[in-house]
Request: fold
Amino acid sequence: MAAVFPAAARVPTGAQPQTVDAEGEASCFFHPANRAEIPCDRCGRFLCHLCDLEVEGKHWCSSCLTAGVVAREVTTLEPRRMMYDSIALALVTLPVLLWPALILTAPMALFLVFRHWRSVRSVVPRSRLRLILAGLLAVVDIGLLGILFWWISMTTRGRL
Amino acid sequence: MGPGHLLLLKSTHFAEEYQRFTFASIQSIVATEVPFNAAPRIAGLLALAAALWLGYGRTPFGATAEEAIAALLGGAFVIALMVDVARGARCRCVLQTAVSRQILPVTRMRVARKLLGRLTPEIEAAQGALTPERAAEMESAELLRAEVSPPAVPIAESRVPWVLFGIFLLNAGLAVLDLMFPRSQASSAIITVLPAELALTLYLLLKPAPTTGRRARSWTRAVASLALVCLLVDGIFLLSIGVGWIIAMTAASRGSGLPLPAPFTSILPTPFPWFRPGWRIAAGLLGLAAAWWERGQGSSS
Reply:
């Protein structure tokens, strides 16, 4: 079963870079033989047609575009998001088999809940249920650990 | 689907990666039905029959544990098989643009049909429909291009069949040694090696191979399928012996008056002592012969 669309027959028609003809003409930062057409809107480097990347109405050079994606200046090209709610939930549920690890993971989960309460979540609809659950479980875990330590200290004191 | 684009989301549960394909740039979406592979299903059904036959009171530790194990294994397999059949034919779905080819996470034909039904109007709204004349032009151009076949790509020969059938022969030797000199407990190594044998057999059966010619490894796979059945029977034997040993240990520790059972590794002999080395020798020799027959014959394109 296949569906073929007109784009398959389209011949690529990219703009061709112009060479530097006259003395004193500005050249591309990355290709000195090509004539500069436009400056990068972020760093100001001169760019030829090959190097000019137009995203969200701005002209970028490749390094600025990469930096912009990392710095989340180019939201339409965001390639990856961390799911802090899932991480927080895992931090309070996975150490069940190795419960002493909760001494570290429960406060970490609580920190993630507060730190990322307003952070953007998945691009698909997703509620705060995981964060709420992680926060509640972290509080319960910390409470139980506190009671355990109190009980151990009381027992030990009685024996000593 | 987003406005003007298809969003491909790859999730590792803790992070999500996104790829967007604008409707204007999608050249084609192809869903290919994956051929029905009967070998694992037949092997599974044989294993199920063997489990049911062997599970009922044929071991020296009573029937309860064996029945439970056989029922669990058989039930799990039957449920998995029914779910697989209910989900319909498998497929491989590929999205093509001018600069990339992306395998979509669609594995069933039914889902692929639904996806195409939803995407096609959106893509045609962005690109327009492909006229029959243009499609015929493209087809003839494609035929011309197909006359020049690409160079053959050499494929490295897999060593897995040699390793697997070699391990079978090695373990058969240990099992024979154990039968001849019971105090050596040589075959106790099988407890450790059995999962590796199982994993390698499954890898050999499930790894994609060319569909035609000797490189399809049909004979190797056939031997591996039969070996899988015997492996599962062996596994059930070992499991039932282990469970029986645990039950006997528990009963003895509760003061039931029964003597403590011998260590687990010393009770490996089964009701059929030559079964374990016998099938391994047969599978090892046949498998090595098949692997030699189907060894690398040039390259595949």
Observations:
- Chain B touches chain A through 41 residues (CB under 8 Å).
- The mean pLDDT of chain B is 76.
- Chain B is about 55% helix and 10% strand.
